[in-house]
Write a structure and sequence with these properties.
By secondary structure, this protein is an alpha+beta fold. Helices cover 38% and strands 29% of the residues. The chain has one domain. It is globular, with a radius of gyration of 20 Å.
C-alpha cells in the first residue's frame, strides 16, 4: 500500500477542457510516494482537484502536514486562469476546509474517548 510524504509542493494545473463541465482550473501537487513493498520511493505529480472541497479531500487522503508553492500560484494567468492569485484563493479556501475537517475529527475523537471511558466506568457488565 502506498503512502504519501506529508510535504507537498503545489502549483496551478493547466486548464483542462472537459466536454461535460467546461473549463476546469485546478491544483496539482508534486509529491513523494512511498511504496513499502519492493518499489521504493517515487516522485510524481498528482491532481488534487478543482473545487475547495475536492482539494481538501485529497489533502486529507494524503495526510498533508506541510505545503509549499511556486510563484506560479501568484501568476496563474500564465496557466490559463482568469486572474493572477486565483489559484491561491482556491487553495486557501481548500486549506480552510481541510483544517476545519481535521479539527472536527480531533474533537470527535476526544468525545468518543470520553464516551468510552464513561461507558467502561458505568457498564453493568464491568468488573465488580
Amino acid at each position: 500500500m502506498k503512502k504519501y510524504d506529508k510535504r507537498i509542493h503545489i502549483s496551478p494545473a493547466q486548464v483542462i477542457e472537459d466536454g461535460k463541465h467546461g473549463t476546469l482550473k485546478g491544483i496539482e501537487a508534486r509529491v513523494k510516494v512511498i511504496y513499502p513493498e519492493h518499489i521504493g520511493t517515487v516522485r510524481t505529480t498528482v491532481y488534487l482537484g478543482h473545487t475547495p472541497k475536492s482539494i481538501a479531500h485529497s489533502l486529507e487522503t494524503m495526510g498533508v502536514e506541510e505545503v509549499s508553492h511556486s510563484s506560479s500560484m501568484e501568476f496563474a494567468t500564465e496557466y490559463g486562469w482568469d486572474y493572477n492569485g486565483q489559484a491561491e484563493v482556491l487553495f486557501e479556501n481548500a486549506w480552510s476546509i481541510y483544517e476545519s475537517n481535521l479539527a472536527l475529527k480531533e474533537k470527535n475523537a476526544k468525545a468518543l474517548k470520553q464516551f468510552n471511558r464513561f461507558s467502561d466506568d458505568y457498564s453493568p457488565y464491568g468488573a465488580y
